[in-house]
Amino acid sequence: MSAIFYVSYVILWMLVILLTAACVYLLKRKPPSPTQEAPVQNGLESIGLPKGIPFPNDGRLTLNGAVPHFHNAIVILSMTLCGTCEALYPKLHRFHQQHPHIPIYILLFADQEGQIKQTVDKYQLKLPVIACTPQDTEFFQTHFFPFGYSVDQEGLVASKSNLDQDNDLNLLASAIVDNESRLAKAW
Fold it and tell me: Could you tell me the pTM of the whole model?
């Protein structure tokens, strides 16, 4: 009986060593996980305005009649009757409470202006909202909603992102905040 025990013991250790070697081999073959240095998601290079160009401002006013200043700001493109967009509004309010120094503008797309007012009232949007029509999607070069841009201090598109993940707002804002912290260190 003891001979069977020793044989099974040796076989067990050979299996452990073999499995360990296989795991090490597989882990060495695994491609490195992509690091996301900029808040641009893969595949978004062809969607939206290119980075580094001025964010378009055609003189539209917010619903409150204020002139938007697209500098060191986050611009959210949203659409009425869009479930993902509607789920984003509470996150935008929380984000704005945590980062009140970052201006956030919502470009709200709708077929009828009444839909925009209904959406603003329904979700109690306190952030500046700018009314847009579906034809304006060509002007901002995207048909994906919700979509966001961060605009730097010169009014240039610093980054862009499809806003479907929880951390996307933070990644979008990091392009502005990182730039501000570099400027503060320079002074």
Answer: 0.71
